[in-house]
């Protein structure tokens, strides 16, 4: 029995459909990771021989055929050209290449019962050993961006380009970093299954290969040229009261300003509610230490102008921000203040992470597009 991946372009559960067909399909709900997990093994009925739309009658919700579902890999890694659905945010994507990151997971560190309990939000100094974990550089299907915009920024790689405007910050939108366990692989006979301006510049269809989308020379050249700004090296994770915070820092480059050097980093953060209680993020509290000896404290409402609600239906929120130092390295840590339905608050730790610079030359001359100046 074949398992066909179906995605919904609007958010609802489809009604039962045409019971005479005996082909099972996977219904993927963009609105909820929990629904997605439940539907990995649940099936509706669909005739896979006909590629067509179907709708749940009274609500008129549309399902669209994507391809044939594949069993996720528990060992090894996915190859360039692998199509997938994101298991948390539900978007369609395709793997460009893997990164081998060091995952510092404070949730699996040795217990320290002999040490006194620290208050919520405190910066704990226990040593955490990193373990190798696979992440993937991926393209996001632009058709899915409107459906994930409230739970995840349309991710972009940002960097400082060697440009006439020394303050210009460039972004290539629709590029994300996805953990191995967040990939739900599928295959498709569509020669252009992902809509993104870089898809046909980086990949080409070859029916004799598995997966049938192989890298062009431009993809390898782009990866090599922009390696310092693309590379994912460290991932930090910690859970407080069922709220897991994952941080990935990226070095963006250096700028000269008023006879001094200013170093820039981007950091991507995902908050995930692992419990059943609905909570809302209200405040952020950052501490930023620079190798130059300065310690800055930042407090503010929400994150990126939002105060996201984390529930069973929408358990995750992901965003990116930037920070600069007048030194080649430093550290960041802090906490989020969340509110429960009864009006009480609690603090969630942001795991400490280092800001490390790389070679100071900045990308130049090879911007395959699309890119946007954020200056």
From TrEMBL:
GO BP annotation list: DNA repair; error-free translesion synthesis
Q: Which InterPro entries does the UniProt entry name for this protein?
A: ApaG_domain (IPR007474), ApaG_sf (IPR036767), Hemimethylated_DNA-bd_dom (IPR011722), Hemimethylated_DNA-bd_sf (IPR036623)
Q: Where is this region: Disordered?
A: 109-128
Superkingdom classification of source: Eukaryota
Boundaries of every ApaG domain copy: 237-362
MF GO annotations:
DNA binding
Q: Print the keywords alphabetically.
A: DNA damage, DNA repair, Mitochondrion, Nucleus, Phosphoprotein, Transit peptide
Provide GO CC annotations from the record: mitochondrial nucleoid; nucleus
**Annotated localization:** Mitochondrion matrix; Nucleus
NCBIfam families documented for this protein: PRK05461.1 (NF003967)
> Quaternary form?
Interacts with PCNA and POLD2. Interacts with SSBP1. Interacts with PRIMPOL; leading to enhance DNA polymerase activity of PRIMPOL. Interacts with POLH. Interacts with POLD1; leading to stimulate DNA polymerase activity of POLD1.
Per the entry, what this protein does is: Involved in DNA damage tolerance by regulating translesion synthesis (TLS) of templates carrying DNA damage lesions such as 8oxoG and abasic sites. May act by stimulating activity of DNA polymerases involved in TLS, such as PRIMPOL and polymerase delta (POLD1).
Please give the PANTHER family that the UniProt record associates with this protein: F-BOX ONLY PROTEIN 3 (PTHR14289), POLYMERASE DELTA-INTERACTING PROTEIN 2 (PTHR14289:SF16)
Instruction: Please identify the protein, giving its name as recorded.
Output: Polymerase delta-interacting protein 2
Q: Give the gene name.
A: POLDIP2
